[in-house]
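Ex. 9. Protein: SPW repeat-containing protein.
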Amino acid sequence: MSSTSSTSGTAVRRRVFHPGSLAMAIGGLCVMIGSVLPWISTPLGHIPGHASYLGWATMFAAPLAFAGAVLPFRRVAIGHCLVVAAPCVLAVVWNVVRMVQVSATTDSWGKMWPGMGLVMIAGGTVILLRTAWRLYRTPDA
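Predicted structure tokens for SPW repeat-containing protein:
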């Protein structure tokens, strides 16, 4: 006698993680930690990332990378990568241009350097953009 509650086929189990989950988590962690570290180093001291609105924007966008890492939808994960990377790219470009401008105006070349936080933000952005590209290019399985 057969059971009435059994299914005729095999159950399809949906994966929670996608191929970019680990990279998204690492990129989000780099952005989150880099947001609170010094972004600009000068002889007079360091300027932290959370001293400007861009530091707060990157800090609040970073958890979206973790959310995209645990969602099983690849297109949503690509969107999360791009949403987190957008303020990070803006922050890195803005600060580097500003450092070059101040150095040129005051003729103090070599006195102002990108801090570890800005380097971590740039690294996390590269990881997230590469992950978005990789998720976009790989076919659906």
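Check your answer against this statement. The two ends are 37 Å apart (CA to CA).
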